[in-house]
Amino acid sequence: MDFFTAMDVSSSALSAGRTRMNLISSNLANANTTRTPEGGPYKRKDAVFAATPVEKRFDRALDAATAQQVRKVAVNEIVEDQSPPRLQYDPGHPDANAQGYVAMPNVNTVEEMADMIGATRAYEANVTAVQAAKSMALKTLEIGR
């Protein structure tokens, strides 16, 4: 794997991580949203990642024939959690039903915070990989001096 392939793979993971972090932020921001344009409470969103082959270029044709396929990360789709809303008793709420229960979003803040920590750690790991690739490239250039 060459320098640019390593950067492609890490940058794709950073981009996917950013999407994941944006979805987590959206979930946390809407943890108490009981009305949406679609009707009903907010539904938790999550990203589905997929491993996709790195684009083949002419200069990598022999590499692909001799080495294993290098894959990068892509956001395949963004899905809504289909679990039922949480019912909370609040008869004074404007969205309460006849029994006094309000349908609240299916967002668990503790789970979202744990996901945020995982996303942060993955992001940090990919930044470290980019820095290591950059450092190796600079050391390679120093050999020629």
Protein architecture, described:
It is a single chain. The radius of gyration is 22 Å and the shape is elongated. It has one domain (3-143). A two-stranded antiparallel ribbon has the order 1-2. A two-stranded antiparallel sheet has the order 3-4. It has helices spanning 3-29, 61-66, 109-143; strands at residues 45-53, 71-80, 86-89, 101-104. With 145 residues, the chain is of the alpha+beta class. Helix 1 (3-29) packs antiparallel against helix 3 (109-143). It starts with a helix and ends with a helix.
Strand content is 15-25%
Shape by Cα distribution? elongated
Distance between the termini: 24 Å
Q: Main sheet, how many strands, which sense, barrel?
A: 2 strands, antiparallel
Helix and strand composition category: alpha+beta
**Helix content range of the residues, please?**
40-55%
Number of helices: 3
Poorly predicted regions are: none
SS elements, strand count: 4
Q: What's the pLDDT, averaged over the residues? A: 88
Spatial extent as radius of gyration = 22 Å
Widest β-sheet, arrangement of strands: 1-2
Number of domains: 1
Report the order of strands and helices. HEHEEEH
Sum this structure up briefly.
This protein is α+β, with helices and mostly antiparallel strands. Helices cover 47% and strands 19% of the residues. The model has no long low-confidence stretch (mean pLDDT 88).
